[in-house]
Amino acid sequence: MSALLLLVLAIGTWVPGFVGTAAAAILPWCGLALALVAVLALFLARRVLLVVLIPALVWALAIFPSLPGLGTAPSADAAPLTIVSQNVRAHSGGAAASAAELADDGADVIALTELDADSLTTARDALAEEYPHSYAIGTVGVWSRFPIANAQPLTLGLDWKRALRVEVQTPDAAVAVYVMHAASVRPGHQQDRDTMLSGIAEAAASDPASAIIVVGDFNAASADPALGAIRSEMDWVRPTDGTLGMTWPAALPLARIDQVFVRGLDVQSSTTQRAGNSDHLATVTSVSVRGGESDPAP
Fold first, then answer.
1. Which residues in 186-218 are b (16+ Cβ under 10 Å) and which e?
2. What does DSSP say about strands 81-87 and 109-113: parallel, antiparallel, or unpaired?
3. If you count DSSP H runs as helices and E runs as strands, how many of each does the chain have, helices first?
4. pLDDT value at position 288?
5. pLDDT at residue 216, as a whole number
6. DSSP for 170-238, written as a single string
7. Buried b / exposed e across 123-142, counting CB within 10 Å, b at 16+?
8. Given this model, what pLDDT does residue 119 score?
9. Tell me, what's the pLDDT at 265?
10. What contacts 15, CB < 8 A, 6 or more positions away?
11. How confident is the model at residue 50, as a pLDDT?
């Protein structure tokens, strides 16, 4: 019975809607249950191992796209660009602490989501000196050591703005940076989130920029079927620290719902870190522009 349940959960990650969303969040932990069943079978009934084999294979296929990866060697042609992103939890009063801690670690670009009016003000004050270039709209904001051009708000199919696009003018190239704060998910109420995820995929697909990175709170676990559209347009950034990169809840991370996608960029490293008192860990991603694929920034 337990093996059958695990099989259903693994298959659920290919089912659109709330079923797929819930199954994707639980999927990584199914591996622990499978391992426990296998160990018990060794001692109690080895024939059970054959029953566990099929769920194990299906689970492996479902989890494979979310497994850790390896970073690339530093580029000789371009300096690394480090981009951090964190949901700072509105009304928590911790945005300034998050911003300061992320800045202390030397990030080049800081993206914050779930900003309210007060947290936006405190984040701006904390980052003004080291990050003179910024843009914010709705619940999202981005701060950069390098000049920002062509900033624009994005609705991604909704009636309010929870995403943005800017071009960060690094010394090596112009990099299009998207920051999004996807709508929340509740049983029977996830259409707004799915609309935004489809919208960000469409925006990336039509973007003429050679180097693009998309960061933020997607409110979707790594294996969620709703991420299929953007996965087909961009490369999902695998954690390079040997973990699954879980980001939420910060006290005991159980799911990676803060995602990073790139196109035209080589990922040197990708990890997570604690900052402030948010209920999300921050994603920390270092990238370099692929040689010859982007023109130097003016």
1. eeeebebbbbbbbbbbebbeebebbbbbbbbbb
2. parallel
3. 7, 12
4. 93
5. 98
6. -SS-EEEEEEEEPPP-BTTB-HHHHHHHHHHHHHHHH---SSEEEEEE-SS-TT-GGGHHHHHHSEE--
7. bbebbeeebebbbbbbbbbb
8. 95
9. 95
10. 23, 225
11. 66
DSSP 270: E
State whether residue 289 is helix, strand or coil.
strand
d(CA 210, CA 24) in angstroms, rounded, equals 31
Instruction: Identify the DSSP state of 158.
Output: S
Which neighbouring-strand residues pair with 141?
112, 136
pLDDT at position 25: 87
pLDDT along the chain (298 residues), means of 10: 56 75 85 75 65 76 86 76 96 92 95 96 96 97 98 94 96 96 88 96 97 98 94 96 96 96 96 96 94 50
Q: Of 172, 149, 144, 166, whose CA–CA distance to 83 is shortest?
A: 144
Task: Return the C-alpha torsion angle 127, 129, 131, 135, nearest 10.
Answer: 70
Alpha-carbon dihedral angle through residues 36, 222, 227, 232, given to the nearest 10 degrees: -100
- What is the C-alpha separation between 180 and 217, in angstroms, rounded? 6
